[in-house]
């Protein structure tokens, strides 16, 4: 553990909603937590990427034996990652639109961000869930409201805007089904 990571871990040691299993490895210096945000990481999981909690009360849950490479999880409500999940480097998982679609409702976003506040009332959010045993290829993007089924594979560079059935391979922008994974490959 680096000195910076150790200091970050000490800063967060009393955070009441931080539950990291003893055998999990987490890059603490890459966590942006507010007082009511929740992070749970299961046994044997490795979090090497960045997790940004965008608003108070956001929740990220990572199961056991899962790997999050140098990727970015951006959470305003809830992101859930199952057991035995592989997330390569350069991926983005985002459970919200960041800004309202209507200009009249987003015109003050920069000024509000500068002042350290944000109006979330008009931002569309939707929880993201990655099922057990799925694999997310490098530079994939998973957007709000998406559920990736058990054992599904998201190809490198895919942009996932709709839920993916279990044991299916998807790729492209927007991601489309490439093929179903047969039982002998599961």
Could you walk me through the main structural features you see in this protein, from its secondary elements to its overall organization?
With 186 residues, the protein is mainly beta. The protein is 11% helix and 31% strand. It has three helices and 20 strands. A hairpin with a 4-residue loop joins β19 (168-171) and β20. The radius of gyration is 17 Å and the shape is globular. The model has no long low-confidence stretch (mean pLDDT 91).
Task: Set down the secondary structure blueprint.
Elements (H helix, E strand, L loop, with lengths): L2 H10 L5 E3 L4 E2 L4 E2 L5 E4 L4 E2 L2 E4 L5 E4 L4 E2 L3 E4 L2 E4 L4 E2 L4 E3 L8 H4 L2 H6 L13 E3 L4 E2 L4 E2 L4 E2 L4 E2 L4 E2 L7 E4 L4 E5 L6
Parallel strand pairs: 1-4, 2-5, 3-6, 4-7, 5-8, 6-9, 7-10, 8-11, 9-12, 10-13, 11-14, 12-15, 13-16, 14-17, 15-18, 17-19
Antiparallel strand pairs: 19-20
Descriptive keywords:
single chain, 186 residues, mainly beta, 8-stranded mixed β-sheet, 6-stranded parallel β-sheet, 20 strands, 11% helix, globular
Please state the overall shape, judged from the principal axes of the Cα atoms: globular
Helix content: 10-25%
**Largest beta sheet, briefly?**
8 strands, mixed
Distance N to C terminus? 35 Å
Q: What pattern of helices and strands is seen along the backbone?
A: HEEEEEEEEEEEEHHEEEEEEEE
Low-pLDDT parts are: none
Round the Cα radius of gyration to an integer and report it: 17 Å
Structural class: mainly beta
Strand content: 25-35%
What number is the mean pLDDT?
91
Number of helices: 3
The strand count comes to: 20
- Strand arrangement within the widest β-sheet reads 2-5-8-11-14-17-19-20
